[in-house]
Amino acid sequence: MRRFAVIGHRAMSKGKLPLNDMAGGAGRMDVLVRALMAGLLTSHGLRHDTEVVLHLMGGPGPSRRIKFVGAELRGVHAEERSVAGHISKVLSLPLPARGHWTERSAGIYDSGGDITHTIGEWDDSTVVVLDADAPRLWGTDASLPSVSKPLSTTSGERGKFTIEGLDIAFVLSDDQPLSDLIQSNLLHRSLGDAWLQGHMAVGVCHFLLDEGVELNLSQE
Predict the structure, then answer these.
(1) Which terminus of the chain is less hemmed in, N or C, by CB atoms within 10 Å?
(2) Would residue 29 count as lying in a domain?
(3) pLDDT, tens digit, for every residue of 163-202?
């Protein structure tokens, strides 16, 4: 399983989402939408081995989490405004209790809470915080394989998917730091010296996992 947690420090957590002003009035919801699309969508379909959790922390009121489960999703298309429409529908509904997931539509779940709650739910995953100042995500002697060997795969049909391979989760932020939200004992890794935009970072992670590049996941 591949999981991504995307932190939106200013992203609105309830109310009417301004679809014509997602970069401003919605608190840079456009950044989260692009990261969500990069996490879940391929050129002609969905990644059924992937989940994305958006963390909306900009208020008004308590923070909110919206989870998109690739194996269950229906009606999600590769168009930003359409994807934002799914988020907008959730924001108009009452906020569930922290830690309690409520299904809003096929593959889309809603909950209160923040990144600490999400990480607590990922106890079976290797959790990696993306940090440009940390060691590289790939191993010292890693190379691109001549034949793709995905580190996680999906088989079966909708409703009966089997997901096998590496269970890994990535945490990434918007333009604000995560230092006050993330436990220091988590694994911090970089994708290079440059601070990539969120959707680009998600794409690089998928590429490494798709190709089967050796990852540097040792705690030492």
Answers:
(1) C
(2) yes
(3) 889 999 999 988 777 766 676 678 999 999 988 999 999 9
Domain count across the chain: 1
**pLDDT score for 161:** 83
Kindly list the averaged pLDDT for each block of 10 residues, start to end, along the chain of length 220: 95 93 89 95 90 95 96 85 93 95 96 94 94 92 92 81 92 80 80 92 97 90
CATH number, domain of 102, equals 3.40.1280.10
Closest CA to 38 of 216, 207, 214, 211: 207
pTM above 0.70, yes or no: yes
The CA distance from 17 to 25, in Å, is: 8
Bridge partners, residue 54, by sequence: 6, 66
Greatest pairwise CA separation for the chain in angstroms: 50
Beta bridge partners of 152: 165
105 part of a folded domain: yes
Long-range pairs, 99-103, Cβ under 8 A, ≥24:
101/67
The residue range of the domain holding 10 is: 2-211
Cβ neighbours around 157 below 10 Å, total: 7
